[in-house]
Amino acid sequence: MTGRSLTVFLGPQHPGAPGNVGFRLIVDGERVLDIELIPGFLHRGFEKMMEYRRWDMDLVMSARICVEDPDHVELTFTHALEQVFGVEAPEKAKYIRVIVAEFSRLASHLLWMMHFAGPIAARYATSWAIAAREEILKWFDYVAGHRIYHHYIFPGGVRWNIPGDFKEKTLKTLRHIEPLIRDLDKGFFHHPVFEARARDVARLKASDAVRLGATGPNLRGSGVKYDLRKMLRYDAYGEIDFEIPVGEYGDAYDRALVRLREMYISMDIIRQAVEKMPMDGPYRWRLPPSIPQGEGIGRVESARGEFIAHLVSAAPNPKAKPLAPYRIKFRGPTFPTLTTILKHIVANEEIMVADLPILLGSLDPCAPDIDR
User: Fold this and answer.
1) CA 294: distance to chain centroid?
2) Are 16 and 360 in contact (CB under 8 A)?
3) For 139-161, what is each residue's pLDDT tens digit?
């Protein structure tokens, strides 16, 4: 304690902390003067472990990097592997990947909704969000056989062909979740209490968002119209028409509204993909067990922003395992979110202790992404 300032700790076991991370706060009364991330509570080291396992085992491990949105991590690792193998997924598989990725985005945004609404006592919103997410988990179980980690996206395509009633089941799932999302829209996002708590709180200007490394909804919430699905047109996104929602003020409320609008857009993308997807044709190319020498980079627009996988299989060591990559490096959106972006907002905006759950929730970090 120096003068009027006081050092206090938030998390990791705190309802206002976003998962397995902690924060060191410098406060002056109720005003937060500075904030510092304390990572390292998971101690996983996935990137190093991947050097000692086969590339197909690494694909399964990659999903653990972000529990809330595992399919986008699998997808970016898959894109990097496909560059090394020199293959491209069949057209049918590209549409299936889009559908899986958008359901993963929906499930992630709904889980974010639960964490965002809970600390401000909007328990009814958490119930609606979990009810909608449960229908999506049932859909994943129907398609992939797993509810949380799906391991369905695979280099060369997808692991298994889709069931015969895939279209009907997919559209039925959307019909179940859309009314719940509309309830969240009317009952939470446009509730005067939530607007009063989130509007003009934790603003992030567009120039600062770009400079500090913001991506995804945090970048678009500041008014920057940038989305890798549009820029790179990977898989079947180039064949689907959709808009990029952006905010106007760059505050916590805008970042929340961007995610809400993205949920509607994701449902529309899934409907388009289901209608345009060829029902015949291959769903996967067979790949050799040994990974060839080479280098690949995968980039996807995950639920939280740009996710990158850099894979190197050309090992200088002649004793290196031919089935495992020499080096794999992931770059997720959470680390800059909880370091440079968070410190900038706290330093330049009047953030009170009671505003921290709103600030952290609006940034939607994935804590496991840090300790990889």
Assistant:
1) 27
2) yes
3) 999 999 998 888 999 999 999 99
